[in-house]
Amino acid sequence: MRVMIQLRPEPDVVAAVADPEVTTSASDVADRLPGVVLDESFPPVAVPRPVPRGGDPLSLRRVAFSMAPQDATVLVRGEIGDDEISTRTALLPVAHRQVAGVFADPVIAPGLVCAGDPPVGDWQRVAELLDTAGLRAEGCDGSGVPLAILDTGINLAHLREVLGREVTLDAERSLVPEGVSERPGEAWVDHGTMCAFDALIAAPNATLLDLPVLLSQRPGGSAIDGLLSDAVAAFAHLRSVLEAMPEESRALVVSNSWGSFSPRWDFPVGHPGNYSDNPAHPFNIIVGSLEQAGADVLFAAGNCGRDCPDGRCAFPDRPIVGANSHGQVISVGGVDVEGKRVGYSSQGPGRLSDQKPDLCAYTHFSGSRVYGKHSPDSGTSAACPVAAGVVAAIRTRWPATRLSPAELRTLLQRTADDRSVVGFDYDYGYGIINPTAVLAALRRLEERRV
Amino acid sequence: MTVRLPRDATLAAAARKLGLSEDDVDAGYGLVPLDPAKGLYGVRVSDEAARRVRPEALTEEGEGVHADPRIEPFGPPRPGG
User: Fold this and answer.
1) Which of A65, A154, B10, B48 is buried most, with the most CB atoms less than 10 Å from its CB?
2) What percent of chain A has pLDDT over 90?
3) Which residue from B2, B67, B73 is facing A151, i.e. has the nearest CB?
4) How many CB atoms neighbour CB B57 within 10 A?
């Protein structure tokens, strides 16, 4: 978290800060403050002290402001890790006499992107930011890597038309739930097609697997009317797909841009059958089991960000729920191509695992044209497959037997382009996915292994 | 519902263990292996059938009745939150 720290240094230091002819830096006025990373680019600012003026006590002008060195204080800027904020803010003024106070330093940016806003940039710009040319040059284009899209189904003809090239889809390893009439690759142009398009930005040669679990709504027939059980069946199918692959080339990337919007459809928190907060729910178990078997599982963080949440969001707090917050998945938040969090991207902490989202990827750009020529590929729905494409690209050369999903997840976190605060924060996670840095880290890892 | 069964179990075996008839379990959904190493499987049953399962049928770790919430695509985000 960004903070402003108010200091009361020696009067000569205050005088130097207040003197426009003298250049001072944060480290000149603040001695080492444990747990605080001072922003050296921010010159210290002298702040006057309010002092009583005397005279009429009812006068609105009864307070004056003194810049005298013995009265004034100095502000510096810094960052404290989100997980330490309450401890540090309590301890700093006690342990350091000079610290007069620690204050929030909220971002005052122009409005964040929200639902209904026009696209920011296009998918070619996303490709540039991900350096897909660099990925391809390293042989990382998704060739031979199965990339499963669990969604509303894929329309292959639309993808071919917009991209102007062939797209590979494996119908045999896809799964159409019972009651769904469309064959793999022949769904209506909708959300699932957008997700497939966005996954192909970084992994143009990946092999798509189509699992339209969101089309399979069956009224009745289950304890609480719904569809999560179809996702359970889809994950069981994917585990058999993964286990059928030769061990030396085993890789499977699973992109999930969906979730549960409301506790109304769930057992209450604390009930043994609850989904949102319960790692023992069957879906959360099978997600962990698929990851353990070697799959990279990505979930969108959701569109319930505080700045402009989706109208369907009904969880009163901690909107990253269930498998979207699972410790063995990569939870993906959204940023626009300028690197700013989109206002609807859900913030942590997560319900199953506290440190969510893991990272952010690009969204709200002009891409698949699924919702019309001038409408963006938006939501963390688009950010998730963008990240899944990066993972699939990396898997072209580093299958799960060489780099486990847990190792790759850690690598993605460590190499992410840090935003907002030092290390992890609940807005951006570890930062924006950075394929170039991942490849560099993998090269170093490879050198060490040789 | 989740139920523990031996490896290569059948839907009929799951129904028997739960004290239900084969008509009570969703045959189209089938018996889904959740964690094969631990012998944990999932079946889909009606709300009414779930209520008929006696607690003594679900004594092993991980067994029970679980929510099957509605899931939706996240996007595109809708204004008005």
Assistant:
1) A154
2) 67
3) B73
4) 16
In this structure, the number of other CB atoms found within 10 A of the CB of residue B59 comes to 8
CB contact under 8 A, A382 and B77: no
The long-range contacts involving A229-232, CB below 8 angstroms and separated by at least 24 positions, are A229/B29, A229/B42, A229/B44, A229/B68, A230/A177, A231/A150, A231/A256, A231/A283, A231/B71, A232/A282, A232/A283, A232/A286, A232/B32, A232/B34, A232/B42
Is the preceding peptide bond at A34 cis, omega within 30 degrees of 0?
A: no
**ipTM confidence:** 0.90
Nearest to A378 among B1, B34, B75 (CB): B75
d(CA A419, CA A413): 12
Residue A366 Cα, gap to closest chain B Cα (Å): 13
Q: What is the β-pairing status of strands B32-35 and B40-42?
A: antiparallel
B38, closest residue in chain A (CA to CA): A289
Tell me the pLDDT tens digit for each residue of A103-134: 877 655 457 999 999 999 999 999 999 999 99
Both tokens of A375, joined, read: 């409408």
Q: Which DSSP category does A115 fall into?
A: T
CB-CB under 8 Å, B34 with A308: no
Task: Tell me which DSSP letter residue A125 carries.
Answer: H
Task: Supply the pTM of this predicted model.
Answer: 0.80
Contact of B79 with chain A, judged by CB distance below 8 Å, is answered with yes
End-to-end CA distance of chain B: 34
Spatial separation of the C-alpha atoms in residues A163 and A158, rounded to whole Å: 8
The tally of CA atoms less than 13 A away on the side-chain side of residue A401 is 8
How far is the first Cα of chain A from the last one, in angstroms, to the nearest whole number? 40
Tell me: the pLDDT tens digits for A269-283? 999 999 999 999 999
